[in-house]
Amino acid sequence: MWNAIVNVMTKMFDALHNLIIALGVPKHAEGVSYVLAIILFTAIIRLLILPLNIKSTKSNAKMQEIQPEMKKLQAKYANDPQKLQLETSKLMKENNVSMFGGCLPALLPLPILFALYGVFRNITATPGADTSFLFIPDIFAYPKGIGFVSIILAILAALSTYIPSLLLSKSMPQQEGGMNMSTMNIVMSGMMGFMSLQFQPILIIYWITGGIIQLIQTYFLNYLPAVKKKKIEEEKAAQAKIQKAKKSTPKTKKR
């Protein structure tokens, strides 16, 4: 099953690489052509899972809306875990909320990363071809020790993991346990940076590209709507405060 997935992705990637060559990128400049192919490949994958991201955003928004009801249930059935689980599931079903709906889009890039590991392991550069890209001498070379290139790529991989997660957390209301989420983001980013020290540069380029696309999606799907919603709520609160002040102001009697 895994080999079949790798084979399909290999054919897909080869087709994209051939397309890049057909568009005019010199065939001997394999570093550039393969990087362009991986950027195009990542964009296609992210486009395919965009509906899941939109669904995840809606699910997370609904989850935030029912938090007060969930807290009431937690207080009401504090001594009855089985009843609490039953009522919580019922509440989520009534509001069309999935516990795992928000996690799937975030987890999907990882198996794709490991499948690409198998894809690139089988790719051999054309003898004499230029496989460099920017400051990377060879995009297919496995790291030999921890050098300048490895450190820079590890930092970029960690940042491309952390920044979208940070933006997502800022778009969500502050709740108890928020620090745990922040810590989890840091740990996940650190793990990705550490793992990238063992990966081929082209794999890390895939991850960084995906992180940039995820950052853009998070900004428009999560952060921007959250900012607009917060602004509307603040305006309503300000209007309510003005109305309350007007009502509480004593009227002067006419003589």
From TrEMBL:
It is a multi-pass membrane protein. It comes from the Bacteria. The keyword Protein transport applies. Residues 34-222 form the Membrane insertase YidC/Oxa/ALB C-terminal domain. It is found in: Cell membrane; Membrane. It holds the Pfam family 60KD_IMP. The keyword Protein transport applies. The chain crosses the membrane at residues 32-54, 99-120, 140-167, 179-197, 203-224. Its main location: membrane. Coiled coil: none annotated. Keywords: Cell membrane, Chaperone, Membrane, Protein transport, Transmembrane, Transmembrane helix, Transport. Belongs to the OXA1/ALB3/YidC family. This is Membrane protein insertase YidC. It comes from Clostridium saudiense. The gene is yidC.
